[in-house]
Amino acid sequence: MITKNIVKQPKSIVEVTVTVLWGDVQTMWDQTLSKMAGEVELPGFRKGAAPLPMVESQLGTKLQDEVLKAAMPNFLIEALKGTDIVPIDYPKYDLIAFTKGQTIQFKATITNKPQVVVGNYKGIKVTRTAPKPVVEEEVQKIIDDLYKRWKAKQSSAVSLQSSATQNQNTTGQTGSISFQGGQTQTQTPANGQTEGPDDVFAKAMGALSLSDLKTKVRKDLESNVSYNNELDYEEAILQEVEKITTVELPEILIGDELNRMLVSLQRRVADMGLLLEDYLKSQGKTLEQLKDEWRVQAEKNVRMELGLAEIARSENVTITDEELKAEIDKIQDAKVKAQFEAQEPRLHLRHALRQTRTLDLLKKMVGG
């Protein structure tokens, strides 16, 4: 028999004090002792053959610790049955009292799944802005940049070929002086073409002609503009969800979001060829100062995430096992795909797919 005392604290923290009578612990104690006895070797006895009372005395607090490691989580689960408490982190256990033959008493501190209230999400009003048209100057800039890189590669190839030819011509000479002449002739295109992007360059880029290349570049730019415009529209909807979401944010969720933001920064910094420490020095900030600056945004992100999840619950948005498997099957990288054999990555992916489907549902409701 167990007794419990549940005290709810601010920010979804819950303290659960559990008292367990010895009768509910003894079986676990005896089983743990027998298991550990098989690895104990005492003078005068073969390994695992010593009497249990002697083994128990030899193990001391190790036996108690091993029993508590298994007992406390089991008794906490029992204590939470029939309550509205859903832990979202690993409990922190504090032993209050443990007397063999009498009782065990411990306190577990957990973060409860917060209560989320979302306002009238069906009445969200967001206007989808028209994508900005792609102008000729933007197309030409891409063409010019591609041409400069292509021309640089061409020049490098010519230089290498010229060096190889010169080495062949000087084979057999002694000393370091070349008598081939010091003037360099500048070649001009045989067909009289002027410098600049042309069909030859365009074909090297995989197009049929320069005109075809410009068309392809324009389509890519228009596709990119459309994609970013859609992201802006979705972000506007999510910001409205955040505004109408009421929740007491658990500290652990804010901390998780700050860590996610930090990982994202580390990747961007690494792309620039820098270490995070060097980047922070260049900004004159410490890691803690950076997190302090991010905190307001992190809270908004968590509120937005929880609000969207609550809408998913209200609208009964689900991802079936078949849909989850189909998404995993799309992954081409074998190593990445293998990661989803574990339960936790599958849970994260299912959640992400559910959030995406919920956002799609909101977009239909908003109808902007």
Automatic annotation (TrEMBL):
GO CC, sorted alphabetically, is: cytoplasm
Q: Alphabetically list the UniProt keywords.
A: Chaperone, Isomerase, Rotamase
A Gene Ontology MF term for this entry? Answer: protein folding chaperone
Compartments where located: Cytoplasm
The UniProt record lists the EC number as 5.2.1.8
Any one GO biological process:
'de novo' cotranslational protein folding
Top-level taxon: Bacteria
Region ranges (Disordered): 161-199
Spell out where the chain crosses the membrane.
none
**Bias category Polar residues: which stretches?**
177-194
* Ranges of residues in domain Trigger factor ribosome-binding bacterial: 5-146
| Substrates-to-products reaction catalysed | [protein]-peptidylproline (omega=180) = [protein]-peptidylproline (omega=0)
Compositional bias (Low complexity): 161-176
Report domain Trigger factor C-terminal positions: 209-363
Coiled coil spans: none
State the InterPro entries in the record. Trig_fac, Trigger_fac_C, Trigger_fac_C_sf, Trigger_fac_ribosome-bd_bac, Trigger_fac_ribosome-bd_sf, Trigger_fact/SurA_dom_sf
The record's family statement is: Belongs to the FKBP-type PPIase family. Tig subfamily.
Q: What is this protein called?
A: Trigger factor
Q: Which organism is it from?
A: Candidatus Daviesbacteria bacterium GW2011_GWC2_40_12
